[in-house]
Amino acid sequence: MNFSASNDYRGDGRFLQHSVIMQHIDKLELRPEDTVLDVGCGTGEETKSLAGKVKRVTGVDASEEMVTVAIETNSTPNVTYIQWDARAVGDNPDWRERFDKAVCFFVLHWVPEETQALALRCISACLKPGGQALFIIPFENHGDSFILLRATSFLKSHEKWGAFVQDYKSSQHLWNLSVQETQKVFKACGWAEAQCEVRMHELVLSEIQLKLFFKTCLGETPLIPAAALEDYLQDLWQWALDHYGDNAQPRDVYIPAGFMVVHAWK
Boundaries of each Methyltransferase domain copy (predicted)? Predict the structure, then answer.
């Protein structure tokens, strides 16, 4: 992630994430009396939306920049935002077995593989017995990488941008376990049941939506000189048009992406 661009991680800058989330959020069966924990709340767009359906939402994010934007742009009386790591939420005694529901959208792939299980255990610890959680995790299927990893490969081989990003190492860890393996991991982390499915989504993004997506989600973006940022984003857009151009809508890109969607019970 590029946390220096957190202010752009909303609206068009989160079109891809928001589109996927909205297709799955109803799995949670939210009730007006529910208290909800949003782990990795980002700028709080879904947090605020959830708050309109439940009693109270606590949004946590490891990024101070994200939490600041969330407070400034998506506050509401029944929402609390706080900086906190997904791998430590279970350490807060005030949160243990406090929440009816939890959500964790587009977060676990930023957590190193060796500590992903810790995050799952911590989120479970925050739920009341019988509580539910919904996870959406970018998925790598048979070597078909998420567009961000492909973009990183493009930048490293680029005659101009490669000089800035050659030593950059992506911090993404796409989920690559099967449905059955994922169920075993969740049960080993204290979950009583986990309904898992790999869902393919076909997403159409405009130029501004994709540029903001790259600006906010590519961790190498801060390595690019500010004066060259627009040229950098334009080259990424042209690369995306060449590889993901939508013939039906010539100025849009068509991005197929897979996600592991997990509806789990404590």
Answer: 36-131
